[in-house]
Design goal:
Layout (H helix, E strand, L loop, with lengths): L2 E3 L7 H31 L6 H30 L3 E3 H34 L4 H4 L2 H27 L16 H5 L8 H33 L4 H30 L7 H12 L1 H11 L3 H8 L1
Helix pairs in contact: 1-2, 1-10, 2-3, 2-10, 3-5, 3-7, 3-8, 5-7, 8-9, 8-10
Family: Belongs to the G-protein coupled receptor 1 family.
Main location: membrane
Keywords: Cell membrane, G-protein coupled receptor, Membrane, Olfaction, Receptor, Sensory transduction, Transducer, Transmembrane, Transmembrane helix
């Protein structure tokens, strides 16, 4: 097997060029938004605090995830082809799994950061020192790398005997599993089950963190204090909600709801929308970030 055939967005040349223009616009918006956040946080010393350090890492991961899937789709539409090489497909699966896993781990770390900032403000400097932040970010990246390596090695160690047509606009693990021989996919299902347990553990940690955060915020006597605390947490909560809801719907929706058109829309929602929307969500009501961007 030398290559795979990805799902085409359209059959006619006019619609292919429309897809090219639309995806190019989305990709450039994601590059601009995340690039501005990275530049602002790196260059403004007022933003050299844990919250913005993690935000910089989030923007790097968003850039990585959208750059893994969208440019190939844009190039294929422009060149009127569906092909992706075997190595290119493996690279897409590894990189996409890496960036998405690392992002989810980082969002869990960011939930802990918000919890310490609001529930244990006197210990914040000790618990979230620069060394602790670097270790936490490194752990998120490393966990993403190990998870992606495990899934990619396992997926491509299976014999594929169901053709080479991938029913998606990029290579992803469930689509490759559909091409595997009868029972050989069960091993990958076991690996996915382990990942699902870790995912659920992080999800429970995020939920418990926000239960503690909201109970602490509601005990703040002044309205101004409550407003400030909520404004610190709401962008992160919005990003987490978008990331988890689109991902869960993509992978956990009942088979009866499955159709090629719906699967495509859902995949765009969880793989393309979050990296583009995250910079907007974080900068919309953030005065410090807006001031840094103006500078």
């Amino acid at each position: 097997l030398n290559d795979f055939l990805l799902l085409a967005f359209a059959d006619t040349r006019e619609l292919q060029l429309l897809h090219f223009s639309l995806f190019l616009g989305i990709y450039l918006a994601a590059l601009l938004g995340n690039g501005l956040i990275i530049t602002a946080v790196a260059c403004d010393h007022h933003l050299h605090i844990p919250m913005y350090f993690f935000l910089l890492n989030l923007s790097l991961l968003d850039l990585g995830s959208i750059s893994t899937t969208v440019p190939k789709s844009i190039a294929n539409s422009l060149r009127n082809t569906r092909a992706i090489s075997y190595s290119g497909c493996a690279a897409q699966i590894f990189l996409f799994a890496f960036f998405m896993s690392a992002e989810y781990s980082l969002l869990t770390v960011m939930a802990y950061d918000r919890y310490v900032a609001i529930c244990k403000p006197l210990h914040y400097g000790t618990l979230m020192g620069s060394r602790a932040c670097v270790k936490a970010a490194a752990a998120a990246w490393a966990s993403g790398f190990l998870n992606a390596l495990l899934h990619t090695a396992n997926t491509f160690s299976m014999p594929l005997c169901q053709g080479n047509v991938v029913d998606q606009f990029f290579c992803e693990i469930p689509q490759i599993l559909k091409l595997s021989c009868s029972d050989s996919y069960l091993r990958e299902v076991g690996v996915i089950a382990i990942s699902a347990c870790l995912f659920f553990g992080c999800f429970v940690f995020i939920v418990l963190s926000y239960v503690q955060i909201f109970s602490a915020v509601l005990r703040i006597p002044s309205e101004q204090g409550r407003h400030k605390a909520f404004s610190m947490c709401l962008p992160h909560l919005a990003v987490v909600s978008l990331f988890i809801s689109t991902g869960m719907f993509a992978y956990l929706k009942p088979p009866s709801l499955s159709s090629p058109a719906l699967d495509l829309v859902v995949t765009v929602l969880y793989s393309v929308v979050p990296p583009t929307a995250n910079p907007l969500i974080y900068s919309m009501r953030n005065k410090e970030l807006k001031d840094a961007l103006k500078k």
